[in-house]
Write a structure and sequence with these properties.
By secondary structure, the protein is mostly helical. It has one domain (40-82, 94-169). The protein has eight helices and no strands. The longest helix is centred in the last third of the chain and has 26 residues, at 144-169.
């Protein structure tokens, strides 16, 4: 995906057409609220509470790895945004839309919280992340590829984090 964005390949054209077709498919107030789930002010307190719960339950290493996973998100996303310099759907003069930091924040925070509290919450984490990404696309804050790339990046971060947690608790 990153290669396609960098060379403005055929996948980008499909992405842009899809984005135009989806833009404002729901009222803006709804898509804005959905996209807000990826804000640090919303997602980070959820993860912090789950980390506190994990520490209270004696799972300090798991809480530490979840916190480190969240700390890694901007370290990966910001350089990619700078490197790709992709313009936004509604702001072609602005750059830095690929990948979506809000989507990565939502995925790592909500899945991390679910893994810390109960695996039964994984579907809730998936729903919150999907709602965030969908809201970002429907409102025109991000292209669909921005969101999808962030999901892939987040799965990588979560996979490394959960493998470290299993190793340290095993």
């Amino acid at each position: 995906m990153t290669w396609q964005v960098l060379v403005h390949g055929p996948l980008v054209g499909i992405d842009e057409r899809l984005s135009r077709a989806l833009l404002d498919a729901v009222p803006r107030s709804l898509s804005e609220r959905a996209s807000d789930l990826g804000n640090l002010t919303v997602a980070l307190p959820v993860l912090a509470c789950a980390m506190g719960y994990a520490v209270w339950r004696g799972r300090r290493a798991a809480a530490l790895h979840a916190g480190l996973a969240m700390a890694v998100v901007p370290l990966l996303v910001i350089p990619l945004k700078e490197w790709t310099a992709r313009p936004g759907p509604l702001e072609p003069w602005a750059q830095g839309y690929y990948p979506s930091g809000h989507t990565a924040t939502a995925a790592v925070a909500y899945f991390g919280a679910a893994f810390l509290v109960s695996n039964r919450l994984v579907p809730v984490a998936a729903l919150l992340t999907a709602v965030t990404g969908t809201g970002l696309v429907l409102r025109g804050f991000h292209w669909p590829l921005d969101v999808f790339a962030s999901l892939c990046l987040s799965l990588l971060v979560l996979g490394v984090s959960s493998s470290r947690t299993r190793r340290s608790s095993g």
